[in-house]
Amino acid sequence: MKMVRSLLLGSAAGLVAVTAGQAADLPVKAKPVQYVKICSLYGAGFYYMPGTDMCLKVGGWVRSEVTWGINGSSTQGPFNANVNNRTTQNLWTRERGYITADAREQTAYGVARGYIAVGINSSNTGNEAPSTNFSSNRAYVQWAGFTAGLAVSFYDFYPAAAYLYRAGNIPNEDTGDGGWWVWAYTAQLGGGVSATLSAEERRTAQIIGVTGAATPTDFVGTLPGGAFAAGAGYGGWQNFDYVGNLRVDQAWGSAQVMAVAHQLNPLYYAPTSTAALDGHPGDDWGWVVGAGIKINTPFVAPGDNFIVQAAYTEGALKYLWSAGSNPNVANASGGNIGYGVSTDCVYGGTLVAGNATGCLQTTGWGVDVAYEHYWTPQWHQSLVFNYMSVSYGNQANALLCAAEGGGNSTGSFVLGTLAAAPGCDNNYQYWGVGSRLQWDVTKSFYIGVEAIYQELDSATAVGNVVPTNIATSTAYGATGSGCATGTCTVGNQSNWTFTVRMHKDFLP
Fold this sequence. Notes:
The chain is mainly beta and about 500 residues long. Helices cover about 10% and strands about 45% of the residues.
């Protein structure tokens, strides 16, 4: 019996040992995997961040382009103090790429959203420094009707970059490419109708102040061809631009009316070391009104649309043409210069002499028109016309003529008889037409080409001779400009710009 019991115990122990060995060879059960969960609340591409109720979409795009006839600047365009000599940068290239992140979550008062776009944005004229190409054109928060941060101006309606690659080369006010600082509230009124009030970063062209004799050399601000500082002649930033719009978006298209109040706070009457003792013009308010309509025309071809926007301003020219820091336009060609002074207001005289003026606001108006036609679902073409007109009252024109010199004004400041000499007229017009042809190879990849014609209908001067303070300015006083010899004359200018682009989105 003892032997049988020992045999049974030994067999059991052996069975346990064999079973344990087999168990050690079996695969261990994996821990549960936390798969990414799709978030369908806000459209394609969103997913829930693991462990949260927040939805995130990561996207972006990259492109490369080449342009000829741009005068070294995609924002200032061909009429930015262009001398058309051996120094002119006609060839220009760019690479751009942005990573975007869109984070959203539900709150008791609606969706809270944060959006950012960061990347590189070059402007290469043959001496590119890649380390300086960092760019960010979006960084904003939206919640309960509010939009705050770097977004797009709520004055905008006409989306210039949707119709032309080099849209900034002809006058339009779209801020979509670079972004604009806003703090706005939008009320949804139903039926696709909304109303927005927005406090925004001010848009400043410049303010020119003129003092002294009939041909002064001391003045605040910058004439065409000079070294320009953005917002020249403005005092420090004291107030927002206040923007309002009423908008409708429906199946047939969209429409918007908008208005702006823009503060003008000039510097002192005399640009000297004792300027503070000379006083300054009182603050004033410029304004802008505009309207636009976009009509979808699928009866011509699916995707077709027509858009037009018009605006009128007194004292806020940047709402006609927002591109670049230098609002002046000028171009030299074959000993001939076309130019236009862009200033939100002009003032002059001194308090001591008793001939000081207030801020004489500049008048301007503009129109933007475009049509987009789809030849096939993958091939589409735009046709664009942009126009801007700038005009000055008699007193403002006389002050500018005096600042320009060269016998373009008569009388004196002291006696208050200053007037523009016959032939000096600073009114000018700038316009352009363009067309872009694009092949959408896929929904997220396209190749396109475009051509733009620009025309500057110049201001004029006495005897058709370029005024002294323009002819001897930073650009046009240079050897080879055609003006250094004193033979330069005034005339209208034109230019062609050609661009080729290749673009890939990360997400369609």
